Amino acid sequence: MKALIAAGGRATRLRPITWTTNKHLIPLANRPMLWHVIDKIVAAGIKDIIVNVNQGELEMMQKALGDGAYWGAQITYLEQKGGALGVAHVVANAEEHLRGHKFLFFLGDNIILGSINRFVERFQNENLDCMLAFSKVKDPHRFGVPEFAGNGDLLRIIEKPEVPPSDYAVTGIYLYNEEYFDAFRTLTPSARGEFEISDINTWYIENRKTGYEEITGWWKDTGTPEALLEGNALVMDDLPRDTFRIKSDVPDGARLQGMVQVGENTRISSDCLIRGPVIIGDNCAITDTYIGPYTAIGNNVKITNTEVEHSIVFDGAQIDTTRRIVNSLIGLNATLRDVKQSHPRTGHQLIVGDNSFVEL
Questions:
Q1: What is the number of other CB atoms lying within 10 angstroms of the CB of residue 38?
Q2: Are residues 143 and 214 in the same domain?
Q3: Do 85 and 43 belong to one domain?
Q4: Helix (H) or strand (E) holding 35
Q5: Angle 33-43/58-65 helices, nearest 10 degrees?
Q6: Using CA atoms, how far apart are residues 273 and 49, in angstroms rounded to an integer?
Q7: What is the pLDDT of residue 358?
Q8: Domain identity same for 287 and 191
Q9: How many Cα atoms within 13 Å fall on the side-chain side of residue 96?
Q10: Residue 137: per-residue pLDDT
């Protein structure tokens, strides 16, 4: 089998971060989002991977992922042609690479608890033509939604229905045979001008042997700042305990509580309190600071006289403010500086783009 990862799109809901960083390279637990996706694909035994990227972002993606050798895999990069014509068109764009193969199609901004092995194994063992993964959600109208008959048979998939026929969403994990491309040629663009993956899935349901499984743990589509931060927390909870290692000397006075990872050449002063789960990268300087649960701090970050909790701090950021920073995304090389020395009693939510400068 092969795998295709969709890593394009403009991620407008995550701007200004995504003006300069591809959404799929935003770090979760200090690793690019796509690293977590590739981990699961390779663990399922698939090592021939194609990554679909926006035109002009090929070099950025290659720099972040390499050729796949880190995973013992082979990664091929493919620029999206024709612009944003819908999720189904992403697969059609890769026909020359996928024709003649069964394949996994994975939306790169989807993260799930546990492995995808059981989905792949059932698809292969039962010789299915299509395999879909569903998850129960509170807001199914935002997704493709499965409709079931009274006896539980799957009837069709409806894209973003106003009145959802079930409380399930079709997640961004699909398995297909090569007939996908025949199905695609039967499609016409939807009212919003896109080729809908829901129409592909309905074609398979009506014409071919299609199976489905429910994701029983968590599944997260990281399309908003809130979902991204929740995804970061979920990934941190799912990390093995031995991931959290202290690789730098920490003075006796510093209090590290719970699961904390500290990278190499990172300096933590004795007046710091770090309450995990927390991940701190390499070459950081943390002084007179409280870092609270579910915070991921990148490499080369300096934080002084600040409280940070439930946030993602990108590489190179500098934070020196007595304010309390919560539920925030702090972009590459961003600077947060205190405009006056006062101790706040409430938190501040920020989404700060790359190379920004903010005074609080």
A1: 24
A2: yes
A3: yes
A4: helix 33-43
A5: 60
A6: 42
A7: 73
A8: no
A9: 6
A10: 87
Encoded tokens for 157: 């998939």
Q: What is the DSSP string of 39-55?
A: HHHHHTT--EEEEEE-T
Task: Report yes or no: 80 and 56 within 8 Å, Cβ to Cβ.
Answer: no
Burial class (CB in 10 A: 0-12, 13-18, 19+), 293: middle
* 268: CATH: 2.160.10.10
- DSSP string of 164-205? -SSSEEEEEEEEE-TTHHHHHTT----TTS---HHHHHHHHH
Same domain, 147 and 175: yes
Q: Quick one: 219 and 249 in the same domain? A: no
User: DSSP assignment of 77-140, as one string?
Assistant: EEE--SS---HHHHHHTTHHHHTTS-EEEEETTEEESS-SHHHHHHHHHTT-SEEEEEEE-S-G
- Residues in the chain, total: 360
Burial of 288 (0-12, 13-18, 19+ CB in 10 A): middle
Residues 231 and 263 both lie in one domain: no
| Whether residues 196 and 280 fall in one domain | no
* Predicted pLDDT at 150: 85
197 and 92 share one domain: yes
* Residue 245 identity: R
Q: How far is CA 120 from the centre of its chain?
A: 20
- Could you list the pLDDT tens digit for every one of the 360 residues in the chain? 999 998 876 766 667 776 777 788 888 899 998 999 999 999 999 999 999 988 888 888 898 899 999 999 999 999 888 776 888 999 999 999 999 999 999 998 888 877 889 999 999 999 999 999 998 888 889 888 999 998 888 999 999 999 999 999 999 899 999 999 999 999 998 888 888 999 999 999 999 999 999 887 777 776 778 888 988 998 898 888 999 999 999 999 999 999 999 999 999 999 999 999 999 999 999 999 999 999 999 999 999 999 999 999 999 999 998 889 999 999 889 888 876 545 555 566 677 777 676 766
